[in-house]
Amino acid sequence: MSIKAIIGGQWGDEGKGKIVDLLSQEAQIVARYQGGANAGHTVYQNDKKIVLHQIPTGALRENCICILGNGMVIDPIGILEEINTLKKLKIKVKNRILIDYYSHIVTPIHKYIDKTNEKRTNNEIGTTCKGIGPTYSDKYNRKGIRAIDLLTNDILQEKIEKRLSAAITNNEIEKEDLETLKKDIEIFYKTTQEIKEYIRDTFLVLYNSQLPNILIEGAQGTMLDIDYGTYPYVTSSNCSSGGIGTGLGIPVSKINNIIGIFKAYTTRVGGGPFPTELFDNDGKNLGKIGNEFGATTGRPRRCGWFDLVVAKYSAKINGLTHIALTKLDIFNTFKTIKVCVAYKFNGKITANLSEVLNSLDNIEPIYQEFKGWNSDIENCEQFNDLPIEAQKYIQFLENEIEVPINIISIGPKRHQIIHNNK
Ligand code: GDP
Ligand code: IMO
Ligand code: MG
User: Fold this and answer.
1) C-alpha span between 396 and 402 (Å, rounded)
2) pTM for the whole structure
3) If you measure from the C-alpha of residue 385 to the centroid of ligand 1, how many angstroms do you get, rounded to a whole number?
4) CA spacing 20 to 30 A to 157: which of 43, 71, 329, 375?
5) Which residues line ion ligand 3, judged by CB < 5 Å?
6) Strand, helix or coil for residue 302
């Protein structure tokens, strides 16, 4: 039996979907442990682009059972849309998509609260407005609604009514939104009837299974982790590997490989510090060539150079055993590529992120320059096929992070991948 976890190493959108799709070929269970519809994981099947938000990307491999773990926050309306998308693609969903009893439910009330918070703070965090923060707040405040509650209509109705009246009393939603919210709640009730059949005790499935291979699909990225990220500009869950134990019930000691996914550069959507962000032509080119627009919200992603200070921190926090480096092809036309190797803060140089995590707006990145390769790499099949400049770039990152980069992605399609098992 092998258990592998895929974790975003930066600020999300590293290409986790593509790598999960690759590794799920060998898995019997693919499971998520945190987050919800804030995620947008892109995969290609027969040249068709598919974006999944809550259902694990392994859904596209019919041999996989997909578990949505207790640590997730589930939006029934969104789930039904995804199930219908899969059905249209003739992908079997019955008995394959399993939502844990104890996952928490995002209702339209939570989505309106999220939108209202964003409006009132002038989009300071820049959330996806999918109700993530408000749902996790209710969970930790011990007032949440869980998937198991959807199985009994009276209990669900009572909980929804109570939450709605609290939202009104506490001025959590705008008065003018109330009528549309009530209509959305009606749609929500209807939807819950249709997703009941997917709600299960997934603990039993995991622990009774004789199935050998489990792939764990992280969402978001380490720098968006509620504890280890750039708080408060983070999401509301533990996206780092630490979340797996509580969000799925698989202890970290049972995991064989923890694979960090890193883009060959860095992107971030929403507010918050971003030390290597670029506002010049290089930044514009990364966004344009990399087609850097959010898979969930369509917002343009902020772009910058690879940040080794972040990567080293991420490797430690997650206990990374391997790295997959994605989107290397985006550099094909770049003459010079830079990597941030340290930060200057208050006249001192540091490569330790935890020292400056709360002062990232005031640091100055220190860069090392690399020569670009100025050629197309999309059709390379082996590490040695890559131009020497690209090989040097990868080897430098690998030596610095001290974790092997054993997967290199050179295009969005399934076959555009290099296995680097030296
Ligand atoms: P995720 O949230 O980590 O799954 O990543 P997203 O799906 O939000 O964003 C990654 C984007 O990059 C998607 O559009 C992918 O199709 C695309 N992508 C992934 N790997 C590569 C790659 O190696 N090269 C290129 N050009 N695109 C890639
Ligand atoms: P995947 O899984 C990139 C960001 C939002 C915002 C912050 C909080 O596709 O990598 P939230 O709605 O979670 O309360 O928003 O987190 N964010 C993501 N950024 N990729 C994601 O997921 C993200 N999920 C949330 O933009 O800054
Ligand atoms: Mg994404």
Assistant:
1) 10
2) 0.97
3) 22
4) 71
5) 13, 40, 295
6) strand
